[in-house]
Amino acid sequence: MFMLKKWLAAACIMILTLSGCAGSGKENSRNDRDRIQEKVSDTDKHEVRYRYPLTGIGTTQKPSDRAVAVVINNHPKARPQSGLQSADIVYEVLAEGDITRFLAIFQSQKPDKIGPVRSARDYMIDLAKGYDSLFIAHGYSPEAKQMLQSGLIDNLNGIQYDGTLFKRSKDRKAPHNSYITFENIQKGAAEKQFKMTPAPRPLPFYTDNESKHLSGRKVENVHIAYSKYSLFNADYRFDAKTKKMERYSGGEPTMDAETKKPVLVDNLLIIETIHRVIDSKGRREIDLTSGGKAYWIQRGVCREVEWRNENGRILPYENGHSLPFVPGKTWINIVKSLDSVSFS
Questions:
Q1: In the chain, helix, strand, coil percent, each to 5?
Q2: What is the pTM (predicted TM-score) of this model?
Q3: For this UniProt entry, which residues form the secretion signal (predicted)?
Q4: What 3-state class would DSSP assign to 47?
């Protein structure tokens, strides 16, 4: 953009100079200046004309791709994962025991490789449906299997496509070694005749200026204790320079296995809700409809808010009004109690 403006400015001076030498008059010079300025303005508008619906980041093309939601393994043997840093929204929620899984929703970016992919739970399907996502998992609980087989949501599952669309990594052991590429997601969608448009409804976002004036308690570190064992816990550390939070699992940075890029977070919503174990395997029923208490953390500022389920989306509310997001990536941590969350 800087080079374009510099070039246009030089062009303007050249036109004015040539006009003076040729004696063509002030009116032609004024028209030339106006045309150049219009071109600069059009270019500026073109860069921010559209925004990705789930990040609010500007783009030059109108987003049209459907969201894709993938269940990603978070067992220590599955780390580091692939593709997490490219997700627009990530839910972190308990499966069995103290181990969480991620539901990563992709729309603005499409990483080459995603995984390890893990089995579905019914509440993950509900969350994916909130963004009308194509749902990707490898395996399912009995409840999730029934939902998927009913046609509730378009989906591709590794049970049916193990070794074809889903590939097993040789350097990890099952069930921590199933991966899928975005190319195979699109291939599978085409085979099943799933539509890959339109883009999901946009979230509400602050303007850049509004993002600079957030009110609340200042925090630098957020710790979420899912277990008495540190390997299963999550931390977010705020960087005042980047104004983003870097995520950690078990004290280690959460980063991409291929690119080594860290997971950086702009919006962190931590919600408290009822968890109930429903079978001998330790599977859970998790209430994601009733709403309740939550922490809303952006740019190193924390607010005590409430959460609501709005058409399948978990959103922050305050005094009856939904709260905007800072443009960027969002993580939503689902916990049994906010007492498991600490700040420093």
A1: 25, 35, 40
A2: 0.86
A3: 1-22
A4: helix
Residues 126 and 181 in one domain: yes
- The enclosing domain of 184 has a CATH number of 3.50.90.10
* Residues 283 and 156 both lie in one domain: no
How far apart CA 98 and CA 28 sit, in angstroms, is 74
Determine, yes or no, domain membership for 59: no
Report if residue 34 sits inside a domain. Answer: yes
Q: Which residues of 226-257 are buried (b: 16+ CB within 10 A; e: fewer)?
A: beeeeebbbbbbbeeeebbbbbbbbeeebbbb
Residue 47 phi/psi, 5-degree rounding, is -70, -30
- List the structure tokens of 227: 């277990």
Cα gap 239→59, rounded to integer Å: 25
In tens digits, what is the pLDDT along the chain, a chain of 344 residues? Answer: 444 444 444 444 443 333 444 444 434 433 443 443 343 333 344 457 899 999 999 999 999 999 999 999 999 999 999 999 999 999 999 999 999 999 999 999 999 999 999 999 999 999 999 999 999 999 999 999 999 999 999 999 999 999 999 999 999 999 999 999 999 999 999 999 999 999 999 999 999 889 989 999 999 999 999 999 999 999 999 999 999 999 999 999 999 999 999 999 999 999 999 999 999 999 999 999 999 999 999 999 999 999 999 999 999 999 999 999 999 999 999 999 999 999 99
List helix spans (H) across the chain: 2-22, 26-47, 122-129, 142-149, 158-161, 182-192, 208-211
Listed in sequence order, the residues at least 6 apart from 336 whose beta carbon sits closer than 8 Å to its beta carbon are 94, 272, 273, 274, 275
Same domain, 80 and 167: yes
DSSP 8-class letter at 79 = P
